[in-house]
Amino acid sequence: MRIVKIVLLLIVLLVGGFYLYFEVIYPATWRSETRRESVRILQAAHSTAELTNGVGYLGWFVELTNHQWIAIRYRDTHSGFVGSSAVARDSGGEWFESERHFCGRFQYWPRLKKQVQAERSSGS
Predict the structure, then answer these.
(1) How many Å apart are CA 109 and CA 56, to the nearest integer?
(2) pLDDT at 108
(3) Which is nearest to 93 in space by CA: 62, 64, 69, 111?
(4) pTM > 0.85: yes or no
């Protein structure tokens, strides 16, 4: 009977530990680690090509008509929790951050822009 109680206690502790890790610890560390990585990558990028690569597949590098730009590195997760991290750097040296969940929407804007330009040039 004593062994059964010990086994049950170990199971409860194991399940509680997994819950604590995946519901509290992992989400908290994911945001800070993702933010730190984004800042490091955007700080190290010096050219347009490096910034474009640095924003990754969910981010967006926007070149404005006045030769200014903004690089937005966005990451999100749906693994057990919904987490988002957007870190942006502009040509003036300013930094911006958001935890708003864009759900990867930035990756569609460059394609939409090309589609609109193609439609305008074809006269549609």
Answers:
(1) 14
(2) 72
(3) 69
(4) no
